[in-house]
Structure formats: C-alpha cells, structure tokens
Amino acid sequence: MLYVVGTGSGSRGGMTIDAEQAILNSDLIVGYTKYVELLREHFPEKKYFSTGMKQERERVEAALAEAADKTVSLICSGDPQLYGMAGLAFELSANYPGTEIKVIAGVTAAFSGGAVLGSPLTHDFAVISLSDLLTPMEKIRKRLECAAECDLTIVLYNPSSKSRADYLKNACDIILKYRPGDTVCGYVKNIGRDGEESRILTLAELRDTPVDMFTTVYVGNSETKIIGGKMITPRGYKNV
Amino acid sequence: MLYVVGTGSGSRGGMTIDAEQAILNSDLIVGYTKYVELLREHFPEKKYFSTGMKQERERVEAALAEAADKTVSLICSGDPQLYGMAGLAFELSANYPGTEIKVIAGVTAAFSGGAVLGSPLTHDFAVISLSDLLTPMEKIRKRLECAAECDLTIVLYNPSSKSRADYLKNACDIILKYRPGDTVCGYVKNIGRDGEESRILTLAELRDTPVDMFTTVYVGNSETKIIGGKMITPRGYKNV
C-alpha cells in the first residue's frame, strides 16, 4: 500500500488527521531529505528513506518497490499533487502491478501562506511556478500574461533560485503591463516553520525585492486591499 | 479570539490538527447551517450557532460579536479564504476593535477532490467560480478564456445551481475554443462525504453532463492523461 501524503507547511498542526494516521500506520516513510528531517522531529520512532533534490524518480521508484509488501508513505510538503510526487507515482505504477496508491491531500503553501497574510485567496486565482526546469519559459510567460490580463489573484511558487535570480523581477514586469504598480502584493517565507517571515508590499516594490526559493509570492487582484495590516481580497466585485 | 477555520472536505480526517484544536478550544462554533450539522456529528458536545445561505454577513458579525469575550471558531468548508468567510471577517473587524483574528487554513475542494481523481493538479492551475452572484459574468467569461488559452488546468467551483443550469455548458463552450473535445476532464461530487461520486470524462462529454452545486469540476491541461483509471497531469512538458 502506497500513501502519497501531503504534510502541509511543516508544523505538525498543519497536517491533516488523515496524513498523521497514514504516517503512523506506515512501515516506512520516503521523502526528500529536507522534509524527512522535518518530519523526523514529529515522528522520531518511524523508519525513513530519503533522496536529494532532482532525484524524484528514484524516490518514487523506491517507495513503489517497498510498497509491494509494506505500508509506505511517500511524503511531499504541502499537497502531494501540486509540484509533488502523486502524478509521478501513478505514472510509474504500471511497473508495480498490484500496489494500491492512495493520495492524501494536504494544505498547499498558497493557502497556509495566505492565512499568514490574511485572506489574499478569497476569490478566483491562479498558481504558477516560475521554475523552468520542466516547463518552457515561453509557457510560463504566457500564463503570467493571461492570469494578469483577467485579474486573477496570482500565487507564484519557486519564485527564485541561485540560477534564476531575476525570474521574479521578470514576472513582475509582465504583470505590470496589466496591473498598476500599487497593486497589493505579499510574500511568506518558511511558512509554518522556524524563521517564518511575511511582508505586504506593492507590485512595484515586489519587482525589486529579492526572495529565495522557500518563499511563496502573492499578487492581488484589482480589488485586493490592506485592512489592519492584512492582505485581503474581497469576495466579489462591488459593482455587481 | 476569533479563529476562522477551514474544516476541509467534510470527513474529520480531512481536517488539520490545528483546525481540530481550534474547534475543541472554542466556546462557540459559528457556521452555515449545513456545515454546522456535519461538524456536530464529529463534535456533539460543542455549542453551535448557524445561519442560512446568503446570510454570510450576519454570520460573521455574530462570530465577531461573540469573540469579544469568548473563543469562537467561525467554520468554513474547505479553506476559509477561498469563497469563504476569512476576508469578510477582516473587512468587518474594524467594528470590533481588540478582537484578534487567526485564519486556520484547510484543504480546499480542488485538492481533496483532486486526490479522489488521481493527480489532476500536479502543475500550474486556476480556480474559477461560475457563480455570478458577486462577480460580473463578463469577468468570469474572460477568466475562462484566459485560463484556457494558456493551458492552465482549470478547477471550476459552483459549476451549477437551479437558476444557473446551463453555466457549465457555457463554460465548456468557451474552453472548447482553445482545447480539443478529447481533453481529459473529471468531477467529484460530495467530496469526503456520504454519496461521494467521481467520474473521468472528455471535455465534449462534460459539456453535456449535468452536475449539481456540490460538485467540483476539473479540466485538464494539454498533457493531462488517464493512467489506470486516474486523471493525471504530468509534472511538466516532455519537450523541455
């Protein structure tokens, strides 16, 4: 039995009860090195196997192989679908017939970070990753254009890395073609973990603010405002 | 103290540990009649106050007023931001100075339903509500156009109601201008609750399928496929 489990933002309380149960019931927990370390603090008695970054395929293969005769939890931060391992587990499962896969949803960073900022995601929104590792940059640019044009609140994942230092600036420049510089934006770093940090700022300021890969970025829609220091998108449009 | 709490899809296990704690620590639980009934099954010993549909303002005002000298949980299904009460609580909070508001994120239907279908939300996506109660229909149409044009996976909330029987059909017609009729789609009804039902079908079939307001609808991107009866969006694009 393979559970593909979303562990939420990193605190034990951000995990669902189903996720906790799956982990407690598993013979083996498989995950990315960093997230296995975080989980080990909450469940020190469990047995773990971890692989490093860009070793997703090896990680999923290992989890599927062990799940043939054990109960295994393949853990992902946030939700296991979104930029996670659930899809890959199903894609590789043909080589492991008879292994049942169950996806256990988790709270993705868009929502756990949004709760820190206030309520930026009250209304329609898009999530776009700025990583071009597996997606052509042309496609990412097009998505930013479209999401900005139709006034969706935009959540940016993987906004930066050492090799992609200017990606957030470039993304803001695309969005600035459609939205004013004073559009309310925000970001949260290390959501639910030690060193959690958040800031609310304008789109113009965001353009020139360096963020790291552990940061989730929010660009408000035309109605998003600041209320009592929180980033709030209303439930609708006043002129309806 | 006011907690604005996302209770997830409806099963107790789909709730986060933080959400459960907030509810257990509250003197009063405030929510929409239907969700209060569901929660009462899990926490029969708690005190509840409920209001009906379209009485969101009354509900939030009641929660804020009680929170002046009590610990109150204002509950929302899924996540409390998305089409929920968190934004409104902050908007109305100026009238209740001194009341602290804390948002406790939950698993929204996009993810709990996605886990039932497989992994439709592996990559960039948009969430769009088809309800035009608070949003001009022109804006909803534009968002469907844009999301379809840039190949985002699309999740549709509030796809139908008695007075909006043809809204899903109209939405599919817009998406069909950009995506072929054999695009992999899916829907899940009553996620995590009695009567849960899901189906994977083509966009052309979806267009002519009646769904109700308790259904969440998924339109895959150009890479979404069916693997072992599950709806799977890959992590990226093969031609990168």
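The longest helix of chain A spans residues 137-149.
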